[in-house]
Each structure stands twice: as C-alpha cells, then as structure tokens.
Amino acid sequence: MKTIFFITIVLISGAFAGLIHGTVNFTIVEPYLDEAIGIENHNLFESGEEEDTPKFWVEYEEYRIWQKSGQILAGIILGTSVGALFGIVFLFSRNSLPGNHDVKKSVLLAGIMWITLYFIPFLKYPANPPTVGDGETVVLRAILYLSFIAISGIGALAFYKLSKKFKNNKKFVSLIGYGIFISAVFFIMPENPDEITAPMNLVNEFRFMSVLGVSSFWISVGIILGLFWNRFESEKKTIKYS
After folding, report:
1. Domain of 39?
2. What is the maximum alpha-carbon separation in the chain?
3. In terms of pTM, does the model score above 0.70?
4. Region at 132 (left for phi over 0; alpha for psi -120 to 50; beta for the rest)
5. Which of 35, 80, 159, 161 is within CB 3.0–4.6 Å of 14 for a Cys-Cys bond?
C-alpha cells in the first residue's frame, strides 16, 4: 500500500472512530458529569468557597456549554492521534495476526490494544467523576495511570516478540507470562491516593458508561480501518491482474 493511501485511511479511520466516541460520550457520559458537578457545586456552597448566586450559575452554564460543545471535536482529535498509533501497529503486525480478512485482523488487534492499553489500566485506576479527586494529586494520578499504560503496552509487545520464538501451542507460554507479569505490576503499583466521597452508585454508573464510551472507539476504529484496508488492497489486486 502506498504511503499516501496508508496515511489517509489511518487518519480517516481514527477521525471517524473519534467522532463515534465523542458522540457516545456526549450521549451517555455527560448526564453523569452533570450530576457529579452538581454535587461538587453543592459542596462548594456548603464550604463557603462559592456563593449560590445568579452570577455563579450564568458563568457555570456558559462554561458547561463551551465544554459540551467541544466534546465531539475533542473526540475526533484524540481519535485521530490514537488511530494513527493503531494504524502503525496494524501495518507491522497484520501478517502475524490470525484471520483471513483484514476486518477480522483489525478488530482482533483493536481488542488486544483495548485490553492492554485501556481495560487493564482501568481496572487498577478506574475513571472517576469530577467530585472524586483532590486537585493537589492530579499530577500524581496522571503519572500513575500513564505509567501503568506504558508498562502494560511495553510488556505486551515484549511477550508478543517472545511468542514468535515459540511454535504451535507453546505460544500460550507468552500469554501466561504476560498475565503473570501484569498481575505483579497490578499489585506493586500504588493505589489511587484519593478517597471516594461521592455516592458509589454514581461512581460505578459513571465508570460503566466510560467503559462503553472508550469501547465504542476501539470497536469502531477496528472495523473502519479493516474495511478501508480491505477495500484498497482489493482494488490494488484488481489493478494488478487487469
């Protein structure tokens, strides 16, 4: 595949998947954000840090409108960048992935990256609504989360490389090895330093919706890139044999 075609389908796939992700988030996650921020505002009023005045609510509504209006655009931008990473990984791993169709290969890779780069780190450091978390620990929390993603991703890549040295059923040795490795990391990494003070039903529902939102991206980017890739490869073969 020519470089220009590769770049085009990767960016378009990421952008479309990001659009879907942003739309899903806007639909199912935003209501929980509104509820969580409402609790946060109530706490601010109770503590005296803010006053329950018309001016406060005008400024708050303006900020939330601006924030919500950028939700889908942010999804497209993030989707494009993550989609680029996904496309590069697919380019180098496509021939090693099982399956007889590019969509199957792409969706499988998306599932692997969803597990290693999102779901496993999420189990250790699950998403929390705005009412949870001390502003003074935000940098520490970001470092812990990104570190776990990096460790999980590099570990998965290392054990994948190791699996290529094994044959047949022995490849499962690498999978088991990664499971042991990431389990050890899971227990060694520090816990989230912030205490959860928000209602647990709100926190759990927010986390569940967040998982659905992110999952919509990985499913979408896997299907869309696979379809584009298969289309261009089919056209390439048609031109070659015509």
Report:
1. 3-99+199-241
2. 76
3. yes
4. beta
5. 80
Q: Distance between alpha carbon 17 and the CA centroid of its chain, in Å?
A: 11
Task: Please check whether residue 235 lies inside any domain of the structure.
Answer: yes
Q: What angle do CA 107, 113, 114 make, to 5 degrees?
A: 85
- The 10 Å CB-count burial string (b at 16+, else e) for 42-57 is eeeeeeeeeeeeeeee
Task: Give mean pLDDT, residues 126-148.
Answer: 82
Q: Give 169's DSSP letter.
A: G
Handedness of CA 100, 102, 103, 109 (dihedral sign): positive
Question: In terms of residues, how long is the chain?
Answer: 242
The number of folded domains in the chain is 1
The stretch 154-161 carries a mean pLDDT of 90
Residue 169 falls inside a structural domain: no
In a domain, 123, yes or no: no
The pair of three-digit structure tokens given for residue 95, joined into one six-digit string: 């021939």
Which one-letter amino acid corresponds to residue 76?
I
